[in-house]
Amino acid sequence: MKLVSFVTVVCLFIGAESFLMFPCSPSYLIDFFFKSYIPRRLQSHYEKDLMKYAIPGEECNRKCTQNDQKVCYFKFTLEYYQVMGGACNNCLKGNHTDCFHTQCVVGDGIERTFLAVNRQLPGPAIQVCQNDIIVVDVENELDGMATTIHWHGFLQKGTPYSDGVPFLTQCPIQFSSKFRYTFYAKESGTHFYHSHAGLHKTNGLYGALIVRSKPLENLYDFDFPEFYIFCADWMHEYAEEYYPGLASKLPIVHSILINGHSKFLNKTTMKYSDAPLTLYNVQPNIRYRFRIINAAFNVCPFQIQIERHNFTIIESDGEQMEPMTVDTLYFLPGERYDITVHTVHEVRDYWIRVTTLFPCINTNTIEGFAVLRYHNKVMDGMRNVNVEFVSNTLPLWNESFAIGKMFNTPQPTIHGISVAETKSHNAKENFISSAADQIFYLIFDTPLFNNEVLFTSKKAFKFMVAADKFNLNNAGTINNISLMTPPFSLLSQKSIYNESIFCDVKNLKNANCIENSSVCQCIHRLKVKLGSIVELVLIDLKDPFTHPFHLHGHKFYVMDMGILDKNVSIDEILKNGIEKPKNSNENPPLKDTIQIPNTGYVRVKFKANNLGFWIGHCHFDFHLALGMAVIFQVGELSEMKKAPDGYTECNNFMPNQIV
User: Fold this and answer.
1) How many angstroms from the chain centroid is the CA of residue 590?
2) What are the residue ranges of helices labelled H in 461-537?
3) Contact present, 173 and 148 (Cβ < 8 Å)
4) Could you tell me which residue ranges the Plastocyanin-like domain spans (predicted)?
5) What stretches of 448-537 show up as alpha helix (H) in DSSP?
6) Which of 57, 237, 564, 632 could cysteine-pair with 241, CB 3.0–4.6 Å?
7) For residues 102 and 275, what is the distance between their CA atoms, to the nearest angstrom?
8) Residue 83: strand pairing partners
């Protein structure tokens, strides 16, 4: 804020508006200085002639060097497609050769329809170098369905119109239309993309997004592009079947896919489906970098283990941390972790095992497997990663590996280490030890309503059938508010609305509230001053779930986390706050997705230095659909970047005459 204010004053003093041809407002200044990092050969052309410099995106998967910026072009076609469909011929009947036909999607070996990017599951990986420019044309061929794509892990500083949140940063991409996303690969590390509309991500609209920078050569020997572990839970029906859902049919996960592959375990016959698995080829006595992505939708956290191997965590959410060697990683939807694996065992196959945790445990446990295959030497034509049918017998859910030392547990235990106990490897920012300018307490909940309350109301309200609860339904709220989205894009259509459309806990005048209840629906917004230091205290007092919170537009420092006294009330917390630990972490980890311990809290801090409207939300897909989200407005409307020429608009159409 101070830097922008200082530059603004200088700008006005020297009359820059007259001879540099840009206004002296923060948004234009940030944009101007951000563009100054673009190589000279692109500075005068990258806006008007961007595609002149574009190369096929696959060519951007290269060894990264300085001063070698590329414009990387990708085309995504979204369509309804089939697992074990016509492209697979007789794969389902046991002809393994047919399973590898072009455009055959095998999944876990069970037929279903899904939403595909370029007829792949997951969609094609984007792999580029830091500071490349990414251009993605999204062509929506999903008849009757509008959607968007969010680039999870990218802050979109200077490019807020590419954040991909419907009715915040853009109007949804209508079917039979196209939308071009253009943004900088500024944030290095392991990320992913996914639809941010409805339950489309649950149905398969996602893929890996990896940005390489200068390698950490002292930590590993090889960082192969193919060595990512993309984890996603998977159902055999459309997710919409369970939203709002049926009392007789709960949303049960059937498999965990690793890079789109798994075997389905039929719990009645205790037999696995006949499907291939992802296989990573390695050699002994080498340190390999693996990138782990959690693209799951359901309320069950994952743990990942590698048979007889420990591994060293070196990055979380694209941010380097002090290396930590563990046996088990606990991770939630939206989180990414980079690990190194030292291949010090005898030559054979080892299981990479991903398992669901509470509430998906015991007979409800779901697992996914891949193979770490040792070779004494590299064979001619051998790939780094294969997809193969394996003859090895998979272990059952009750044949577990030893947990050993676990990282990212919701609370410190004798065998566990929480994120809050780790340290960032990067230099700490000055504001970490400063007092916050604004503090927000955000309480996450899934309040219950009986049928009588919900279905006698004259007001429509988002709900979901509660699991194992007769006559009860869940909402999804933050501070008892379920987020509604406006019928237009807040960022691009600023001129058509005013302050009265928003709400918060102190202003529910225009909210849609359930009778005799404190729960309301409205456009829940928290206003933040540009440049201010913001502290969020994220709380879950009652839910049995460990909610993963993801913030768009900013990364935050994880200051502390813990379990609250079971007798404490919300009113007491709001009145007295939560005591900070005496021995604070002077160099806390930096993340964009964090777990909120059930019956506990996590405190995070960030500097609001990115103008725009940014959503913060639970990354369980059903909870987000229920409205467990809040909008952060950073800065004033007058400071925000103007919409590009020709940017799509949307709104209600309510004529007062026959048209």
Assistant:
1) 15
2) none
3) yes
4) 103-214, 227-376, 515-635
5) 451-456
6) 237
7) 16
8) 112
* Overall domain count for the chain: 2
> Based on the domain organization, do 308 and 435 belong to the same domain?
no
Q: Which residue has the tokens 């272990």?
A: 395
Predicted TM-score (pTM) of this structure: 0.91
Tell me the CA end-to-end span of the chain in Å, nearest whole number: 49
CA-CA distance, 507 to 571, in Å (whole number)? 18
Q: Quick one: DSSP state of residue 446?
A: -
- Using an 8 Å Cβ cutoff, are 117 and 104 in contact? no
Dihedral over Cα of 336, 337, 343, 348: its sign: negative
Per-residue pLDDT band for 26 (boundaries 50, 70, 90) equals very low
- pLDDT tens-digit readout, 434-493: 999 999 999 999 998 888 888 887 778 899 988 666 678 899 999 999 999 999 999 999
Asked if 541 and 519 count as a contact pair (C-beta separation under 8 A), the reply is no
User: What's the rounded Cα separation, in Å, for the pair 552 and 157?
Assistant: 10
- What's the number of CA atoms in the CB half-sphere (13 Å) around residue 12? 8
Predicted confidence at residue 28, as pLDDT, reads 41
Contacts of 462 (CB under 8 A, 6+ apart): 475, 476, 482, 521, 625, 626, 627
Residue 365 included in any domain = yes
Identify the pLDDT of residue 173. 98
Calculate mean pLDDT across residues 222-245: 95
| Cα–Cα distances in angstroms (integers) from residue 269 to residues 265, 397, 493, 616, in the given order | 8, 14, 56, 42
- Lowest-confidence range among 34-43, 114-123, 262-271, 331-340? 34-43
pLDDT over 90 percentage in the chain: 71
What does 598-630 look like in DSSP terms, one character per residue? TTEEEEEEEE--S-EEEEEEESSHHHHHHT-EE
Whether 6 shows a pLDDT value over 80: the answer reads no
What are 582-597's pLDDT values in tens digits? 777 889 999 999 999 9
Q: Please check whether residues 380 and 515 belong to one and the same domain.
A: no
Q: How many beta carbons lie within 10 A of that of residue 250, not counting itself?
A: 12
For residue 107, is it within any domain? Answer: yes
**Looking at this protein, which amino acid is placed at residue 165?**
V
For the ranges 22-36, 127-141, 446-460, the lowest mean pLDDT is seen at: 22-36
Q: What number of CA atoms fall less than 13 Å from residue 27's CA on the CB side?
A: 15
Cis geometry, peptide bond prior to residue 122 (ω within 30 degrees of 0): yes
Q: Are residue 413 and residue 552 in the same domain, yes or no?
A: no
d(CA 71, CA 55): 6
Query: What pairs with residue 288 in β-bridges?
Result: 222, 341
User: Domain residues for 631?
Assistant: 430-639
Task: Please tell me what DSSP assigns to residue 432.
Answer: G
| DSSP percent split of the chain into helix, strand, coil, nearest 5 | 15, 35, 50
Supply the CATH number for residue 562's domain: 2.60.40.420
Within 10 Å of residue 467's Cβ, how many Cβ atoms?
15
Q: Length of the chain, please?
A: 659
**Would 469 be classed as within a structural domain?**
yes
Give the integer Cα–Cα distance in Å for 273 and 275: 6
- HSE on the CB side for 461, CA within 13 Å? 31
User: Residue 598: is its pLDDT beyond 80?
Assistant: yes
The model's confidence at residue 78, banded by pLDDT at 50, 70 and 90, is very high
Give me 454's structure tokens: 């919900």
Tell me the longest C-alpha to C-alpha distance in the chain. Answer: 79
Chain segment 151-187, per-residue pLDDT in tens = 999 999 999 999 999 999 999 999 999 999 999 999 9
